[in-house]
Amino acid sequence: LVKLLLQRQDVNPDFPDNRGKTPLSHAAHWGAEGVVRLLLERGDINPESSDKNGRTPLSYAAERGEEGVVKLLLESGNVNPDSYDNNGRSPLSYADEWGEEGVVKLL
After folding, report:
1. Model confidence over 6-28: pLDDT tens digits?
2. Which sequence spans correspond to the domains of the chain?
3. Which CATH class is domain 2-106?
4. What's the predicted TM-score (pTM) here?
5. Distances (CA, A) of 101 to 11, 16, 88, 94
């Protein structure tokens, strides 16, 4: 379904919702590695996009311990693992708070 939607000219894969979260942020948050990979391969989305709270896809994936997604985002070379949200929190701080040791090691 995602592949079909991404083929349509009238679909913007980087369009944020009312909270500023993009499809990549949602996919990262829920650990949808395949969707994250598809979106990153397009090359026309911003993997460093931030929502109204200043949180990035990496921040959401780190908080939930989504190691595969964190790896994909870091390997893209287009994300800053040291970014901070509006509350002064980094992806590392979220991973550490929730005891996500695998993600902490990646970051």
Report:
1. 777 887 888 999 999 999 999 99
2. 2-106
3. mainly alpha
4. 0.92
5. 37, 30, 21, 11
